[in-house]
Amino acid sequence: MKQSSAAAAESAFPAFDRERQNGMLTAASAESAVLRHDSDNSGGAAEGAFSAFDRQCMKRAFSLARRGEGRTSPNPLVGAVVARDGRILGEGWHRSYGGKHAEREALDAVLAAGLSPAGSDLYCTLEPCCFTGHGKHQPPCTELIVGSGVRRVLIANRDPHPAVNGEGVRALQAAGIAVQSGLFAEKGEELNEAFFAFQRRGRPFVQLKIAQTLDGKIAALNGNARWITDESAREEVHRLRGRSDAVLVGRGTVLADDPELTVRLAKGRNPVRAVLDSRLSLPDSAKLLSLPDKEKTLIVCAADADAERMQRLRDRGVTVLPVAAPPDSSGSPAGLPLAPVLAALSERGIRSVLVEGGRGIFSSFLKEGLWDKLSVFIAPRIMGDGIPAVSGFAAETVQKAIRLGAVSTRRIGDQLLFEGFHVYRDH
C-alpha cells in the first residue's frame, strides 16, 4: 500500500526539528502529558482541561463529520481540524467509504493553502487509525500525523475497532506527540452510535421507530394507520432513513401499507429495504419489488422457502437472503429468528438498521433485547380500541419492565418525539 511507512508520510511535509521546533514536546514529556481515555470510551480528560478554542475546534470537527452521514458506512463518521496559535489552518472529513480519511483531508488542506502543519494541533472526533489490512483502502493516519509535525492531537473517543482501540494513541505518544482525549466524548458516542454498537456487540445498531397515538395505538382495528403523525414527523423519519444503512419491516407492514421505504421528504440516499418474509409470500404488485433501485430491496426468507419463487424475485433484480430458521422460531416475526437475520445483514456490510414495524417486529426486538435505541413519535390523538405498539410479552412487575436510559424529548410539529437507549448490563 502506498505511503504505508512513516518515512513516506513525512516526505509530504517540510522538514522540522521534532523535539523543539514551535515548542513541540519531546517523547518523554509528551508521554507524561497524555490524558488517558477511560476504558469504557466515555471519558478521558476532565472538561476543564480544554480551552475555549479547543472546544470551538472540536465542535467544528463534529460539524464536518456529519457531512459524511449516509456515505461512510461501514466506516465511522470522522471530522478533523488543524489549528495553530488560535487560528484554523485546515479542515476535512471522511466523505465516503474508501475515500481519504478526515485527518489526511485536513492536513492536505493545510498544504493546499501554502502552510505547514508543523507545531500545530489536530482535533479529531475519533482516534486515528494505525493499521493496514485486507479491505482497508487508506494508509494509517498515525504515520501521516507523525510525519506532518503536528504537536498535539485531541480526540473525542478511542476507536473501539480491535485493530486500533488505543494503539493509535500509543503510536502517536511514542513519536513524541501529546494526546488528549475525552473532549465531547458523549457527542462522539452519539455521532458514531452505529459503528460503536457493531464493534462492541458484533451486530448492527438497531433503532426501533414507532408512531403511535397518546394511548399507545399504531393503527385502528382494521389496520388503517395513515396518518397517525403529520408531515413534519414523516420528514424526520425520512431523515432517519437517510442516515441508516437499512430499513426493516415485516411482511404484514408491506401487505397493509404497501410502502416504498425510500427517502423522498428529506435529503439522503435510499437505504437497503429489508423485509422479513419467511415464505416469500409478498404479492408481485408490491411497490418494493418495482422501484428503480431494485437491488436495494432485500427479502429475508427461510432457507427452505420455495426455490422457484426465490429465482423469480432474483430475476426481477431483487436480493433474496435465505436464513436458517430453527424449529422453535415460530414465535419470531415471520417465523425468522432475529439474531441470525441481523448477522446476515451484518455480513452484507450493514451497520445500522431502522426498524419501522409492525407490532410483531417491534415486540420481538424488544423481547429479545436486540435493539439499541427507541424512537417513539407520539401524536395528539386518542384511538381507543386499536392495535397496540407492542404485545406478546409482559413484565411480571413494574420493576422488571424494560427501562430506557439517556432519554430525551423534543417537539416535531404536533408530535412529541421520545427517544431512549437500551441499558446494557455490560456497558
What does this structure look like?
By secondary structure, the chain is α/β, with parallel strands linked by helices. The protein folds into 2 domains: 6-189, Cytidine Deaminase, domain 2; 195-422, 3-Layer(aba) Sandwich (Dihydrofolate Reductase, subunit A), CATH 3.40.430.10. 28% of the residues lie in helices and 22% in strands. The strands form 3 sheets. Strands 11-10-9-8-12-6-13-16-15 form a 9-stranded mixed beta sheet, sandwiched between helices. A 5-stranded mixed beta sheet has the order 2-1-3-4-5, with helices on both faces. Helix 11 (307-315) links the parallel strand 10 (297-302) and strand 11. Helix 5 packs parallel to helix 6 (167-174). The longest helix has 15 residues, at 52-66. The radius of gyration is 24 Å and the shape is globular. The protein starts with 5 loop residues before the first helix and ends in a 5-residue tail after the last strand. Residues 1-40 have low confidence and may be disordered.
In short:
This protein is of the alpha/beta class.
